[in-house]
Structure formats: structure tokens, C-alpha cells
Amino acid sequence: MRIYRVGDEGREIGDIQERLIGLGLTIDPGELGGIFGASTDDAVRRFQSARSLRVDGLVGPDTWGHLVEAGYRSGDRTLYLHSPIFRGDDVRALQRKLNALGFDAGREDGMFGVTTDRALREFQRNVGDEPDGIAGPQTIETLERMRPIEAGPSRAVVREAEELRGVQRTIESQVLAIDPGERDDAGAECRYAIAEMLRDELLAMGAKPVMVGGHDERLAPADPARAANELGAAMCISIALTSGMPQASGPTVSYFGNEQTHSPGGMLLAQLILEEIEAALGTRGRLQRLSISILRETRMPAVLIEPTTPTDADSPPSGVSPTFGEHVGRAVASGISRFFGD
After folding, report:
1. Lowest mean pLDDT among 37-41, 104-108, 137-141
2. Longest dimension (CA), the chain
3. Which residues of 206-233 are buried (b: 16+ CB within 10 A; e: fewer)?
4. Which of 82, 209, 210, 320 is the most buried (most CB within 10 A)?
5. Whole-model pTM?
6. Is residue 259 a contact partner of residue 309, using CB atoms and an 8 Å limit?
7. d(Cα 284, Cα 274) in Å, to the nearest integer?
8. Which residues, in sequence order, are CB contacts of 206 under 8 Å at separation 6+?
């Protein structure tokens, strides 16, 4: 989809504004009806911050998708396993309640997949209802009547954290997905230098790295995640260079999460990789929870690595030495090795 920003006008902007206002955000009357001005930009940024998205004021696929999903409330529609899958805050509310009652609905990511379907059927079976996997008015009413205690970490977060402690891991023969992005945008040379060094280091460790990006055409945001899932990868490493965000000028490593939930596996992987990048570059960085497609839609620990920020959207990163990609690639590989206990 097209990316909308300050200065754009049209019906699409009016649609964005209506959704923002419906969520309680304020836009100046002079902009209403389709003018993307300063107050619309501010509303978009506030929404992005609340949803653990990139706070850049741009309405692209991730922000638009979250705007649509935020409009659904529990009980607004009947939910069940469907293709394409149902997405929305109503799905997330269902997952939260099921997890709180001890039925493992998986990540509270707002996507109704097979794990949520299985948990829903188990709940229905336990309360004596037909286990049809359909969250209609009766099932929602039963869930509400049971008053699940939703404070604290969900069952899915606890389970994933326990699995990290209890499973003996080794990097040997592990399929590891690497997403270096498209070949034809700014910073591609630097990203590919990192990805290729990472691939070579992982191969030397006995792993099976697979590039899931690298296409000449621009992919949909969810495509690399879908490719990693189809591979059955043990983890997914995505590499980006972010422009126009000076607050992220140091190395940043992101993992799936928002204010309510997160991926313990992704968080651990992100911490270890960031430590290695900081040591390699001699600079401090930060960890960040994000709910963007590459992190949200992968079924394994996934991280987004942003080792530096271009000063200009159309230029490669400034101040980057010819060996920068090699240093970062090796550092990421070291962090991955530590994750597997090697």
C-alpha cells in the first residue's frame, strides 16, 4: 500500500482521521475531511506509541493494519479459525481471557490461529458447551461471566519463559532465517554486507542459515515472516537501517511485544545480540518492544536489528567504515551462538 504522511490529502486521509477520532484522538477541525497536517501527524504518532509501532508519523501497512484492528471490540463479530485469519483487538481480548483461565491461546497477538482455536475448543469442552471453536455471543458471555483475572503475565509468556530454561539447545543444524530486506532501497549495500557475514559465520558454526528477503521487488511486510514460518526456522533475524529517527541513532534491537505481552525468547535473543553489537561498535544501544509484522507474525523468536541510522533517507549511513558490515555480522552471530548456549 502507499505510505501516507504530512502534506498528503484525499479520501484515504479522511478515513485515517475517522479511525483515529473513533479511538479518542483529537484532530484540528481545519484538517478534517482529508488533510494530513500537524495535528493528524500528532494523532498518528500517539496511536503508534500506544500500539508499540514505529513512532514516525507514517501510515504504512503496519500502522494501517493496527488502525483497522483497533476498531474491533469484544463481541463485535463472531470469531473462528478462518483463512485469511481474523485479526483485531477482539481477538486479543479473547486470547487474554483464555490465557487467564489457564487455556493456552498462545501469544496475545490479536491473530486467530490454530493455537487460539485449540484453546477455545478446550474451554468450550470444559464448560460443557459444543467445542465448535466459534466465539459467538454465548461463548463470549460465558467467558465474561467467569471473570478471568487478566492482570500479570499470560500463560503463553510463562510457558515460553519456562521452555527457554528447560530445553537443551545447540546451534548445530538449526535453520535460521535472515531477512536483509530489498536490494534496491537506501542502505541495501550495508544491510547485505551484514547479512552475508552473518550467514557465513552461522554456516561455520554448523547452522543452516537461509535468506528470506533479498528480492528486487518490494515485499509485503508479512512476507519474510511467512517465509520463516514455512521454513520451520528456529529464529528469524531481520536487518534494517532506519532513517528520520534521530532518537534511534545508536544500535537498536527490537523484539515482539507491547504493553500487555511480549516474547521471552525474542527478548533474550535481542539482549544477547545487543550486548555483542555494543561491544563490537563501542557504543551504547537500546532494546525495544515492537508489534510490527516481522516480529508479530513469526512463530519463533525474532528480532529486528538496526545497527545505525542513515542521516538521509536516500543516502547510505554516514560514517560507516568498509568493515562495518563485517563487525556487525560477526557480533550478531556471537549473540545467536550465546542464545543456543554454544
Report:
1. 104-108
2. 65
3. ebebbbbbbeeeebebbbbbebbbebeb
4. 209
5. 0.88
6. no
7. 9
8. 171, 172, 173
For residue 312, what pLDDT is reported?
43
Gyration radius of the chain over CA positions? 21
* Cα–Cα distance, 21 to 15 (Å, whole number): 10
Q: How far apart are CA 25 and CA 95, in angstroms?
A: 26
Q: What is the mean pLDDT of the chain?
A: 89
Q: Across the chain, how many H-helices and E-strands are there? A: 12, 6
List phi, psi (to 5°) of 301: -55, 135
CA distance 53 to 94: 22
Cα gap 171→324, rounded to integer Å? 25
CA–CA dist 212, 209 (Å, integer): 10
Strand partners, 103: none
Number of other residues whose CB lies within 10 A of the CB of residue 26: 11
Beta bridge partners of 253: 287, 305
CA distance 92 to 46: 20
pLDDT computed for residue 185 by the predictor: 67
Give the pLDDT of residue 318: 46
